């Protein structure tokens, strides 16, 4: 048996070598000698091609059964609606017991109020109260309807006409809420694909409007004209398609987050050079800047027609509520149909519109209020310029006096807690109400945080001196 | 058709008001106001309980609060914008609605737009009714969460969408972080009342959060005007977030969110509307407090109960009479919103002008509540009358 096996192996080997030595195995192809092993390699190649062409094995997919869906749904654990409450979230704001004028009452004590944007001291003004009272008696409180459907009261139309006359623009549209003005106006004009160049320090209302517009947003350094110039240059030269897109610059006249004033004359020059449109928020400059309080355009000597869209909230110098947008008639007419905050919302209560009309009349008739306010700002600056640990970061003419922290602790949260502590102590120990920066996690602005004081024409010299002394003392105790 | 919209009025939006007549040459763009006034029957304002004019209880208190606190605080709620009236208002609203705490904003539209992004973000899912208001859509888009729409008022379709949680888990292995279902109490387009009990039970089963927008239903339906929860017998603890506006039944302005103590504390710390926006005008806040007191009978009279009974009777009577006359009227029983279907867009300006013209013949008044919905599906251009208490 052994020999049989050996014989068989020998025969097989002999046969195999014969095959390899056969004449067919000695072909010369393209100058290369082909030997017998080529057949093995070719066979191997066929096997590989066959395997690759086979579909990979997937387990057959069957739809989930009802029971499986039930089990998966039971297993799913959602996140809690809100994260756990921390100690800093329990902080309560001060509760006022009287009007938020230059002096107010908190906890039964008289307190000097630098936390209301009551720049001209019109809160509690006799004429405003009279016009509100007569409007309340005639119209009640609410208007019970959107502007398109019987929510338009004749006071609204009068208010719009008065604002247009005051600012020198063709037409105005009234909004029922200050913050909603910007976030309704911007998405009305700016759509997907447009380019918006905005200041990085704009307030949350504008940021929300920019986000809702779905346009391409490019931020430039806060109030830095060189950065704006280079950004505009980059957009116009690098992107050839941008010549056919709508382009906007969005800025605030007086920035809420820093108290800086925008250099409108330079912005207008850049806008004309690169052919952009300007949307300007004049909430904190209306009734404040300019010889007669007509805003930033008057302050810089720029004709108001050069700014394409001007918006403003009336909850500042005008001591009422709501907002408006002003510009040429076509822009305003368009918003009456397609601005969501106008069409889908109840209109401004009529007594607030009549308060706005009276406030503008008072500003027109009493230019000394502006002079007093400017004097107060200068006095406060004088008192605060030597403060230790903080520095004045706002413009010397801005009614928002902003003290930023010179040395940050590294964490914004800790800075905010420290500033809140400072403001609380100012209220408790010195009866002084100031504003410490507040940040929502939705706010993208990364400017430095600090203490804000809103200067009013109603503050007396002693109020301003008291504020400076108190802040200097607290800064030296808490910050050094 | 421009003369059919934005008709100005020269008096309070009461049962009868003075409408300003306008000169308009057909085809011209400009409409001029005239000094002529026309007394008209008002079926177009959202003045459900009749607080929208001088009220013997509310208005004196509002004027008193105006004299004490002035028209505006010029400050946000966290700075110097919280007065004792605001604190009282939030307590009053929370108690009225049946929740622990409430937070109040100066504009109803903005309430939805501000709150939804704070509660949910990327990785979450919002399931919203197909006929939800534009403010909810705006807020949902601004939040960055995924949005799914379920068929109007169909709990079965909602359940089908919720069951897809399981599918998503197997396919992408990334389950949703949380799910919020947004519905309204009364839908302003259809006048229908939400099927809240079914929706709440489905959401409980699938662990989704319920957000109820009671813009039109608060103060207008239910025995004591507490809205759709009271009407349909739903426990307010089952609705996680209750939202409403004050511009309709309470004839003021603003909106509120009511919920648990922790929810409101969180919102007060993080919501941009609370941190940056000017607080609600103090006289408006006083109007809401006074209106709630009248509704609950705390002013010592039973005017509130009478008003609620009248609006229910008026709504049902008007609806049944219109149906007897042959009109196709939508809306559920007890709902004060009733759309009358015209079906043809061209009829709308004609209907509006005919109603206005009635005044000349009858010398009493005319129906002026015409609403055209640019957002309504083309097949059903509706004319809507909102019944209000006379």
From TrEMBL, chain A:
Where is the protein localized? Endoplasmic reticulum membrane
Q: What's the EC number here?
A: 2.3.1.50
GO molecular function term, any single one: serine C-palmitoyltransferase activity
Fetch the SUPFAM superfamilies from UniProt.
PLP-dependent transferases
Q: Pathway it acts in?
A: Sphingolipid metabolism; Lipid metabolism; sphingolipid metabolism
- Tell me its cofactors: pyridoxal 5'-phosphate
**Which coarse location class describes where this protein primarily resides?**
endoplasmic reticulum
Pfam families, per this entry? Aminotran_1_2
Residue ranges of domain Aminotransferase class I/classII large in the record: 109-419
An example of a Gene Ontology BP annotation on this entry?
sphingolipid metabolic process
- CC terms in the record's Gene Ontology section: endoplasmic reticulum membrane
EC top class named in words: transferase
Record's bilayer topology term: Single-pass membrane protein
The record's catalysed reaction(s) read: L-serine + hexadecanoyl-CoA + H(+) = 3-oxosphinganine + CO2 + CoA
Q: Which residues does UniProt call coiled coil?
A: none
Which keywords does this chain's UniProt record carry?
Answer: Acyltransferase, Lipid metabolism, Pyridoxal phosphate, Sphingolipid metabolism, Transferase
By sequence similarity, the record places it as follows: Belongs to the class-II pyridoxal-phosphate-dependent aminotransferase family.
Instruction: Give the protein's recorded name.
Output: serine C-palmitoyltransferase
Automatic annotation (TrEMBL), chain B:
Q: Which InterPro entries match?
A: Aminotrans_II_pyridoxalP_BS (IPR001917), Aminotransferase_I/II_large (IPR004839), AON_synthase_class-II (IPR050087), PyrdxlP-dep_Trfase (IPR015424), PyrdxlP-dep_Trfase_major (IPR015421), PyrdxlP-dep_Trfase_small (IPR015422)
Q: Which Pfam families match?
A: Aminotran_1_2
**Could you cite one Gene Ontology molecular function of this protein?**
serine C-palmitoyltransferase activity
Q: Pathway involvement?
A: Lipid metabolism; sphingolipid metabolism; Sphingolipid metabolism
Q: Which cofactor does it need?
A: pyridoxal 5'-phosphate
UniProt keywords, alphabetically: Lipid metabolism, Pyridoxal phosphate, Sphingolipid metabolism, Transferase
The Aminotransferase class I/classII large domain extends over: 40-360
Gene Ontology cellular component terms for the protein in this record: endoplasmic reticulum membrane; serine palmitoyltransferase complex
In the bilayer, the protein is annotated as:
Single-pass membrane protein
Q: Which domain of life is it from?
A: Eukaryota
GO BP, sorted A to Z: ceramide biosynthetic process; sphingosine biosynthetic process
Family to which this protein belongs: Belongs to the class-II pyridoxal-phosphate-dependent aminotransferase family.
Report what the protein is called. Answer: Aminotransferase class I/classII large domain-containing protein
- Recite the lineage of the species: Eukaryota, Viridiplantae, Streptophyta, Embryophyta, Tracheophyta
């Amino acid at each position: 048996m052994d020999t049989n096996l050996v014989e068989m192996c020998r025969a097989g080997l002999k046969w195999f070598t014969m095959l390899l030595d056969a004449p067919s195995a000695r072909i010369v192809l393209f100058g290369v000698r082909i030997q017998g092993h080529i057949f093995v390699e070719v066979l191997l190649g066929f096997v590989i091609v066959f395997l690759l062409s086979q579909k990979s094995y997937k387990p057959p997919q069957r739809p989930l059964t009802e029971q499986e869906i039930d089990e998966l749904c039971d297993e799913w654990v959602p996140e809690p609606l809100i994260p756990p409450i921390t100690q800093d979230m329990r902080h309560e704001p001060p509760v006022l017991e009287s009007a938020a004028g230059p002096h107010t009452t908190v906890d039964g004590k008289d307190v000097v109020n630098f936390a209301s944007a009551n720049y001209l001291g019109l809160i509690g003004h006799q004429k405003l109260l009279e016009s509100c009272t007569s409007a309340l008696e005639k119209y009640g409180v609410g208007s019970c309807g959107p502007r398109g459907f019987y929510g338009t009261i004749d006071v609204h139309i009068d208010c719009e006409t008065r604002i247009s006359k005051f600012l020198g623009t063709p037409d105005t549209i009234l909004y029922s809420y200050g913050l909603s003005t910007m976030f309704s106006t911007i998405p009305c004009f700016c759509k997907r694909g447009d380019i918006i160049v905005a200041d990085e320090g704009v307030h949350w209302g504008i940021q929300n409007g920019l986000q809702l517009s779905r346009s391409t947003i490019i931020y430039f350094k806060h109030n830095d004209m060189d950065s704006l110039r280079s950004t505009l240059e980059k957009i116009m030269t690098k992107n050839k398609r941008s010549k056919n897109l709508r382009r906007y610059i969005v800025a605030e006249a007086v920035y809420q987050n820093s108290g800086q004033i925008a250099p409108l004359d330079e912005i207008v020059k850049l806008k004309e050079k690169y052919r952009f449109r300007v949307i300007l928020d004049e909430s904190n400059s209306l009734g404040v800047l300019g010889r007669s309080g007509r805003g930033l355009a008057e302050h810089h000597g720029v004709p108001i027609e050069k700014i394409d869209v001007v918006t403003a909230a009336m909850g500042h110098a005008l001591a009422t509520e709501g907002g408006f947008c002003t510009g040429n008639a076509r822009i305003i007419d368009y918003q009456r149909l397609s601005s969501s905050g106008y069409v889908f919302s109840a209109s401004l209560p009529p007594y607030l519109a009549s308060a706005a009309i009276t406030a503008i009349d008072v500003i027109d008739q009493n230019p000394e209020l502006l002079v007093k306010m400017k004097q107060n700002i200068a006095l406060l600056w004088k008192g605060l310029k030597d403060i230790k640990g903080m520095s004045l970061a706002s413009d010397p003419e801005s009614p928002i006096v902003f003290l930023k922290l010179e040395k940050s602790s590294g964490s914004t949260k800790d800075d905010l807690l420290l500033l809140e502590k400072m403001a609380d102590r100012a209220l408790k120990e010195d009866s002084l109400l100031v504003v410490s920066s507040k940040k929502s996690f939705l706010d993208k602005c990364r400017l430095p945080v600090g203490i804000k004081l809103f200067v009013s024409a109603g503050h007396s010299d002693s109020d301003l001196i008291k504020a400076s002394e108190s802040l200097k003392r607290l800064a030296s105790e808490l910050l050094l | 058709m421009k003369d059919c919209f934005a008709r100005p009025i020269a008096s309070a939006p009461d049962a009868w008001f003075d409408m300003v007549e306008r000169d308009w040459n057909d085809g011209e763009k400009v409409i001029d106001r005239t000094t002529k006034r026309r007394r008209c029957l008002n079926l177009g304002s959202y003045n459900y309980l009749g607080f929208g004019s001088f009220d013997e209880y509310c208005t004196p208190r509002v004027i008193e609060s105006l004299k004490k606190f002035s028209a505006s605080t010029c400050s946000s709620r966290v700075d110097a914008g919280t007065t004792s009236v605001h604190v009282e208002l939030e307590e009053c609203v929370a108690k009225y609605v049946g929740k622990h705490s409430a937070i109040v904003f100066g504009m109803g539209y903005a309430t939805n737009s501000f709150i939804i992004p704070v509660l949910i973000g990327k990785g979450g899912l919002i399931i919203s009714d197909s006929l939800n208001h534009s403010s909810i859509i705006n807020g949902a888009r601004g939040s960055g969460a995924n949005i799914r729409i379920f068929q109007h008022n169909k709990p079965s379709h909602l359940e089908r969408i919720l069951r897809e949680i399981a599918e998503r888990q197997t396919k992408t292995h990334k389950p949703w972080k949380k799910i919020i279902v947004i519905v309204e109490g009364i839908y302003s387009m259809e006048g229908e009342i939400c099927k809240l009990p079914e929706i709440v039970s489905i959401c409980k089963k699938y662990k989704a959060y319920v957000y109820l927008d009671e813009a039109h239903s608060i103060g207008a339906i239910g025995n004591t005007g507490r809205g759709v929860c009271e009407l349909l017998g739903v426990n307010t603890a089952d609705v996680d977030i209750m939202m409403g506006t004050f511009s309709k039944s309470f004839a003021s302005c603003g909106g509120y969110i009511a919920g648990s103590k922790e929810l409101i504390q969180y919102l007060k710390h993080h919501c941009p509307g609370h941190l940056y926006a000017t607080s609600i005008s103090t006289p408006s806040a006083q109007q809401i407090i006074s209106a709630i007191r009248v509704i609950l009978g705390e002013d010592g009279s039973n005017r509130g109960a009478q008003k609620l009974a009248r609006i229910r009777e008026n709504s049902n009577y008007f609806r049944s009479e219109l149906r007897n006359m042959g009109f196709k009227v939508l809306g559920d029983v007890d709902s004060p919103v009733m759309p009358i279907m015209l079906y043809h867009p061209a009829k709308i300006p004609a209907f509006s002008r005919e109603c206005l013209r009635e005044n000349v013949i009858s010398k009493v008044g005319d129906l002026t509540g015409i609403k055209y919905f640019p957002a309504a599906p083309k097949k059903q251009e509706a004319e809507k009358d909102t019944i209000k208490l006379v």
